[in-house]
Amino acid sequence: MVRTHGGYCFHREQGSPPDYCVPSAKWPCASGEKYYGQGPMQISYNYNYGAAGEAIGVDLLSHPDLVATDPVISFQTAIWFWMTPQSPKPSPHDVMVGRWQPENRDRYLALDVTISLKKASWLRMTPQSSRPPSSSSDDIIIGRWQPADRDVEAGEIAGYGVITEIIDGGVECGKGIVEPGSRDRIGYYKRYCDILGVSYGDNLDCNNQTLFGR
What we know:
Layout: H1 46-56, H2 66-69, H3 71-83, H4 92-96, H5 104-108, H6 138-141, H7 149-153, H8 160-172, H9 180-196
């Protein structure tokens, strides 16, 4: 989350973001509203605002600014994102707790096949439960998420790199190099692991991962 909004300095996406409105029968965009990144997890797109709002009982499609202006709603959406699998992605929670295990095809394309980061499970405590076969970020960290064979073949091996893919994979992952954004995330992650005296685990980057669903 620190990387996502500049060390907690920004509660809204910086620059001139688009409206992040895509066609959706279930989560149609409200007239005049924009769904750019807001809150601790900088959730974006109408389908995320709609699903998060349904989970917490708030109409975020009509009132997306509440994610930035209401502190309770802001962190509720962050917890929702962390704990909720969104197919084909596991929840970050499932990855971190070891619940998600990659399939064989993910392992074949990965540089490092070690599944780890279980020691950091307590850093990401809130489970998401509505995105099978994907999982929450915390589930990934504590080993609750177990990648299937297809995940392993795509380089999706449990570790912090899968968290980056879930959060911003289209921009930062699968390019054969560690993108600046991913490098920042890893740096923040290591900083807090050092402060807490816990292991980083392995598989910290996502440079050789094939994006979920591809």
